[in-house]
Amino acid sequence: MTRAELTSMFEEFGEPKYRATQVFTALHGRRIRDLENITDLPKKLRAKLIDTTDVSRLTVETKYESIDGTRRYLMKTHDGRPVEAVFIPSEKRDTICFSSQSGCPLKCDFCLTAKLGLLRNLTAGEIIEQIVTVLNDVYGESNETPHGTNLVGMGAGEPFLNFDELIKALGIMSDEDGLFIVPDRVTISTAGIVPRIYDLANVETRPHLAISLSAPNDELRDKLMPINRKWNIHELMTAAKEFEANLRRGERFTFEYVMLGGVNDRDEDARDLAKLLSKYQLTRAKINLIPHNGAEQLNYTASTPDAVKRFKSRLESLGLDAYVRQPRGRDIYAACGQLAAMDVEKAVGRR
Ligand code: SAH
Using one digit for the tens of pLDDT, what is the confidence trace for 125-145? Predict the structure, then answer.
């Protein structure tokens, strides 16, 4: 619930407005999960809230911890759908990767989540609850986030197919009395739902944008990412150009490029990619190269470290900014494209 929604709920209860602030601060700011523990509310009101509302509708099924410190949380919704979130610690700043859908309807050929299909969209509450669950597991129920938190909407699902709940969740999470994770700390990744790229450009306080490109031409992108048959590279780049025109001072945006051995990692692919960005004059884009994960379950080979390095320096010599995303939590199926509600023990057993 937004603060406005909470306020009208308390109005209906015949309670003063400030109850909304008290409850909002307790649930989002102090991350209290048990209404019984909001002791600044009268006992009677607490009992009423317990009777009529739910604080949390996600339960943690299993938690996996990687040798690199990454944690993957396999959660379930109240109706039994899997939801995954990942905690990625780092010295500078921790990152939480959240899911926007249970499963995913897009059929990207290199992605394990695609195998689930779409189970359903998550609500704003279920999106926020993932982040609170992770923070409470790492730091306990408090208002502490010692390293500060970056959020990436790069878990399961396509965020732009659940746009309204996503934007609602980000609004609630940015509140100073709540989690206080401001949009500037948030990056949302889309496979290319073109109309929503235009919409995002018009959201007043909006997160940063990443676009999963992964191929420099329509022929290949049609195969890798079937969403390309609906909105092709020209339409995607035109939207990206428009988005670029609306960037804030100093802000950039990202193209993600999954590196598939022999498929999209050749010299000519680097050349075509550079040509593409220069054709649309996308000067404020950077490129994140993501080595493919989980190749053993999919019919791909990850690009070799040498091929990734070479691709990166080709792009650089063509004037682009390219970075290699280090995979985190591969051993627990927490890395990009591996969130498929997989039980690690079972998965490892199957190999
Ligand atoms: N649906 C959105 C959000 C997912 S973000 C999107 O596609 O952008 C997850 C990122 O991981 C995307 O850039 C996706 O292309 C990438 N990815 C998917 N499968 C992968 C895999 N097996 N290895 C590495 N990256 C993968």
Answer: 999 999 999 999 999 888 777
Is residue 76 within a helix (H) or strand (E), and if so which, with residue range? strand 71-77
Give distance in angstroms: CA of 244 to centre of ligand 1. Answer: 22
C-alpha to C-alpha distance for 247 and 123, rounded to whole angstroms: 28
Among 104, 108, 111, 336, the one annotated catalytic: 336
Is 336 catalytic? The answer is yes
Its sign, for the CA torsion 12, 15, 21, 24, is negative
Q: Which helix (H) or strand (E) holds 243?
A: helix 233-245
Domains and CATH numbers, the chain: 3-52 (1.10.150.530), 59-347 (3.20.20.70)
Q: Which two tokens stand for residue 73?
A: 């949380």
Taking the CA atoms of residue 229, residue 231, residue 234 and residue 238 in that order, the dihedral angle to the nearest 10 degrees is -170
Residue 54 has pLDDT above 70, yes or no: yes
Nearest to 86 by CA among 142, 138, 147: 138
Of all protein residues, whose CA lies closest to atom 9 belonging to ligand 1?
154
- Name which residue sits closest to atom 12 of ligand 1, judged by CA: 212
Instruction: State the closest ligand 1 atom to the C-alpha of 153, by its place in the atom list counted from 1.
Output: 3
β-pair partners for 322: 287
| pTM value surpassing 0.85 | yes
The pLDDT tens digits for 56-72 are 889 999 999 999 999 99
d(CA 139, CA 152): 19
> How many Å apart are CA 305 and CA 312, to the nearest integer?
11
Distance CA 199, CA 160 (A): 10
Cα of 92 vs its chain's centroid, Å = 19
pLDDT in tens, 187-220: 999 999 999 999 999 998 899 999 999 999 999 9
> What digits encode the pLDDT tens for the residues 297-319?
888 999 999 999 999 999 999 99
255 - beta bridge partners? 211, 287
